[in-house]
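Re: Re: token formats

Sure, here are both.
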Amino acid sequence: MSRGTLYLIPTTLGRVDPSATIPQGVRAALEQVDELIVESEGEAMRFLGWLGLARPVAEIVLRRLDKETPPAEIPPLLAGLEKGKTIGVMSDAGCPGVADPGAQLVRLAHERGARVTPLVGPSSILLALMASGADGQSFVFHGYLPAERPRRLETIREIDREVVARGRTQIFIEAPHRNDHLLADLLATCSASTRLCVAVDLTLSGELIRSAPIAAWRSAPLAIGKRPAIYLLYR
């Protein structure tokens, strides 16, 4: 039986011209996909419209996968692979499968013997690491820290101890509406000599990347607001 291909399709990190960060190979893959598994239909249609595909976007079957999708509904999303179809996976921003839906689909595709093809595009995590000056050979990505403040503070202490003891770069993200609360907790909790990098609005017009010891941050804090941000702690 012919097995299809699962493309992992990156998108922009915000509402900007895709030509700056999205290679032609992504457009070429989208010209041939039969189905597209997306985090939200609205964002997917907006991105497809920006790319200006030669084919009618209406030809692509859209299926939704987000954090609310029940586990039992995930395997049927890949039914087309059994028929040799080409399926794409796309999140709202950046690369699917990394802090975004898609990893379970990829695992299932491998189990079914399908071809899995990741495509090049912007990853806010890697871009922030590149621009931070932190050790890129030994790092940990934690995803989101706990929302509850007591647990968040304890997690920050644990992460800071890891930085001090092992020198391993620690990377994490936060929901935009909690950015300023998280930054305040980092400045209140971490060792003065630990370095903090905050990368905001990566690849967008308002991009800001600041890296300095916690002591310097305390003397000149930053108001991030509700903007997408990546945080790194390191030595």
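Second one below.
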Amino acid sequence: MKVYFFGTCLGNIAYSKALISSVKLLQHFGATVIYKKDQSCCGQPSLNSGYYEETRKIALANIALFNEPYPIIVPSGSCAGAMMHDYIQLFENTPHAQEIQEFSSRVYDLSEFLLNQLNAKLLDQGEKTRVTWHSNCHALRVTKCTEASKSLIRMLENVDLIELEREEECCGFGGTFSIKEPEISKTMVEKKIADILSRDVEYVISGDGGCLLNISGAMKKMGCPTKPMHLYEFLAQRIGLE
């Protein structure tokens, strides 16, 4: 099966290891991965800031770039949600509506694609550990892929997944929200970290780069022992691909 891989902005900037791990996971379970070197942003930052015309230009550029009828795999529930759902609303009642519908129907969050399309079975090769999971807001409420992500973690025989008490609460990142409302964002991430630390785990796992940057940066300043890690880097390590 041939697939396109959409790396995301934060993946390219801050989580290149997670992107490499994502590609290795796809290849390991039988996909031929096509990475378009000219790819850029999904357009969510501009969309959330109200720049609708600019976002439409980004979306149309992505349609032109990923022009073959292959699945488009995204290692971020946030970016996948924008391309799967926000694009459709953005182009509603426009001449491009049908074209956008076709494009969006080919977009998959990576965890769902591994689980439901490639029927991935993860054979754990790591030592016993305890982890918890942070659900990003867009993945939870728009893409609705968090259960697929957690299902992959639960496949790992030597990994205990400990649920957060307040898993569905935002970490305070929210894109530009953390810049515009730093005091509120700081309080939110501190509450999230308190929940993480109360679980007594070795790792906090998330499938979203923005949340991980926010949580890991705050944890580093606080001197917390829990290690933040991107979902796909964690999975690849556990099954011996890293």
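Residues 129-238 form a domain with the Rossmann fold fold (CATH 3.40.50.1860). The first strand starts at residue 2 and ends at 5.
- S.
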